[in-house]
Specification:
alpha+beta; five-stranded antiparallel β-sheet; elongated; 3 helices; about 30% helix; eight-stranded antiparallel β-sheet
Length: about 300
C-alpha cells in the first residue's frame, strides 16, 4: 500500500471515530434525561433538582407507562403531543385513557387514589374560607382524596372544589384547593374568586396524579388546569412539599438560561468536532497532493 493511500485511510478512520464519539455524547445525554409525560399535555425533564418543560420528545428509551393510574407496561413512547406506544418489536400498542409515563431511569412511584365527594363538615370549612353558604349541589368540581402524603401511616386530605359551572346562580364564584396534613391546619393552594363576566375565561382544576419522586418523604401532586373556552391551553400544575408545606412549582422553560448554557455547550462540542474533521480531511488532501506532486517530479 502506498504512503498516500495510508494517509487517506488514517484520515477517514479518525474522522469516523470522531463522528461515533459525537453521536455517543448526544445519545448518552438523551438517554440520561429523566422524563415525565403527563397525558398529551406535558413533557417534563427533571435535572439537578429542577423541573424543565420540553416541547418535543427525543428520548428513544423505554418508559414505565400508566393508563388511568394503572400500570400498563414498559414501552417506547413517540410523538409530539399525541403520544404513541411501541413494544420491543416496534409494533404500536393501543391504549385508551389518560397517559402517565416516566423513563426507566427515573425513580418515580405513581400513587393510586380514589376521588370522593366532600362531607358536610368539609363544606362548612369551605364556607368559612369562601365566605358564602354553599350546598353540595353548588359544587361543579367536588374532589376529596384521602391519602398518606408524608408516608407516616396517617391519612392526609386533599380538597379541591369549584362552583364555576354550578347549575344555579351563585352569590360568589371561586376555585378552592387545600391540603390537610395529619389533621393539622389547612394549607390553601388555590383560592381564586372569579367575577361572573370572567366565568368562561377562568381556569378550573382537577387532581390528576400523585407520585413520589426519588423516595422523598412527601409525595407530589399534579393538578390539571383546564378552561371552558379556548382562551388558553390546558396545563399541568405541580405541587411539591418543602418540609411539609405544599406550593406550586415553577416548571422552567426549556430555553431558560441554565438550559441555554447546556445547549450552547453541546453545540460548541459539535462545531469543534466538525471543525477537527474538516481539518483532518484538508490536511490529508494537502499531504496527498504534496506526495503526488513529489512522485510526479520523480517520475519526470
Amino acid at each position: 500500500m502506498s504512503k498516500k493511500n495510508k494517509i487517506i485511510i488514517k484520515g477517514i478512520f479518525i474522522a469516523f471515530a470522531l463522528l461515533l464519539f459525537t453521536n455517543k455524547i448526544y445519545a448518552d445525554d438523551t438517554s440520561n434525561d429523566k422524563l415525565l409525560i403527563i397525558d398529551n399535555i406535558s413533557i417534563w425533564n427533571y435535572k439537578d433538582n429542577t423541573w424543565y418543560k420540553k416541547d418535543t420528545l427525543v428520548n428513544n428509551g423505554y418508559f414505565l407507562v400508566y393508563i388511568d393510574n394503572k400500570y400498563y407496561g414498559m414501552y417506547k413512547v413517540k410523538g409530539i403531543k399525541d403520544f404513541i406506544l411501541y413494544d420491543n418489536d416496534n409494533n404500536i400498542v393501543p391504549y385508551e385513557g389518560e397517559l402517565f409515563a416516566h423513563t426507566n431511569n427515573f425513580e418515580i412511584k405513581n400513587r393510586s387514589f380514589k376521588i370522593e365527594t366532600v362531607s358536610e363538615d368539609i363544606i362548612n370549612e369551605i364556607n368559612s374560607i369562601s365566605g358564602v353558604l354553599l350546598k353540595e349541589s353548588d359544587l361543579s368540581i367536588n374532589e376529596y382524596i384521602k391519602i398518606d402524603l408524608d408516608n407516616n401511616g396517617i391519612y392526609d386530605e386533599i380538597i379541591n372544589v369549584s362552583n364555576l359551572d354550578a347549575l344555579d346562580e351563585q352569590t360568589k364564584y371561586f376555585n378552592l384547593a387545600f391540603i390537610k396534613l395529619n389533621n393539622s391546619e389547612k394549607q390553601i393552594i388555590i383560592n381564586d374568586e372569579v367575577q361572573p363576566k370572567d366565568l368562561l375565561n377562568a381556569p378550573i382544576y382537577n387532581v390528576k396524579y400523585i407520585f413520589n419522586n426519588n423516595d422523598n418523604k412527601y409525595d407530589s401532586i399534579i393538578l390539571e388546569e383546564g378552561y371552558f373556552s379556548n382562551v388558553d391551553e390546558t396545563k399541568n400544575l405541580l405541587l411539591e412539599s418543602n418540609n411539609g408545606f405544599y406550593n406550586k412549582v415553577i416548571i422552567e422553560k426549556e430555553q431558560n438560561d441554565s438550559n441555554q448554557i447546556i445547549e450552547d455547550k453541546e453545540g460548541y462540542i459539535l462545531y469543534i468536532v466538525l471543525a477537527i474533521i474538516l481539518v483532518i480531511f484538508l490536511l490529508s488532501y494537502f499531504i496527498f497532493k504534496k506526495i503526488k506532486n513529489r512522485e510526479d517530479v520523480m517520475d519526470d
